[in-house]
Amino acid sequence: MNLDLERQPVGRSQLELAGKVDLGPREGGPTAVEVTGSLEVDNLGSRFLLTGRLAALGEVECGRCLAPCVLAYDVPVEIMVICSVEIDDDMGDTLVIQQRSGEVDLSGALREAAILALPQIRVCRPDCRGLCAQCGTNLNIKRCDCTDEAADSRWDGLPE
Length: 160
Ligand SMILES: [Zn+2]
Ligand SMILES: [Zn+2]
Known about the structure:
The protein is mainly β. The model has no long low-confidence stretch (mean pLDDT 89). The protein is built from one helix and seven strands; from the N terminus they run βββββββα. The strands form two sheets. It has a five-stranded mixed beta sheet with strand order 2-3-4-5-6. It has a two-stranded antiparallel sheet with strand order 1-7. The protein has two domains: 2-128, no CATH class; 129-160, no CATH class. β4 and β5 (68-82) form a beta hairpin. The protein binds zinc ion (ZN) (2 copies). One zinc ion is lined by residues 132, 134-135, 137, 144, 146.
């Protein structure tokens, strides 16, 4: 996914992006996401500001029941491409790429943005019951007979 500096009109334009971003190995995934969407490109002459939100899709293992599932999330993007040699000291959270001409490879910056935006909780569905901590039964599929100290005591003594 590139930004061609030679073809950018002065002022604002849209850059359509679609592609795979490798995130590297991580427990439960995703190791890669497909990102799609468009960024607004603000051509300021010696620098280009890219901002917007991309949609990311990746395969993960549910954090509760370990079933494979698809994670969809938004990736806010703010990238500054600087064509001059000087760089402002403090760019805040903006990802900075320094390049004078040609095609700028955005994949490194998009990778960073996609990792930053990864949701902490990655589950197959919000109400996933997960696995029984004692016998490993997938509680979305069936109940097990394990006694759970924290279980609701109203059910005590009821015949199964
Ligand atoms: Zn689950
Ligand atoms: Zn159990």
